[in-house]
Amino acid sequence: MNTILVGGCFDLIHIGHIYFLEKAKRLGDKLVVLLESDETIKRIKGDHRPIHTQEQRKKMLLAIRFVDEVISIPPLKTDEEYFNLIQKFHPDIIAVTEGDPILEKKQKQAELIGATAVIIPRIPNISTTSLAKALEVE
Fold this sequence. Notes:
Layout: E1 3-8, H1 15-25, E2 30-35, H2 38-45, H3 54-62, E3 69-72, H4 79-89, E4 93-97, H5 103-113, E5 116-120, H6 128-134
Parallel strand pairs: 1-2, 1-4, 2-3, 4-5
């Protein structure tokens, strides 16, 4: 069984997320989502985020038919912490969104554990940040 690993915030789920998860699932048998903590999102995105709690985001992700498992991860700060977490899952594939700001780190992590990094194209002009701004929550 091929395991595909993805990670992210998945706050304000939108069509870009659905597209990404669908494409990732097509790469193998089991799609596992590593879901960032509320604390990590707040640190990265600012005090106004996340909109939904980690538990709410987990429930929404599990309702998507492409997602097989969601792991709520604790607040992590270092590359080593992320690497150790990813290594526990022994994924065959790590799917990454095109333009991911830490794309190179994710590719390196995949290489170090013998997984393949696959880049999935983005849908242009769709993002949680643009959606949050349109809803005036950011």
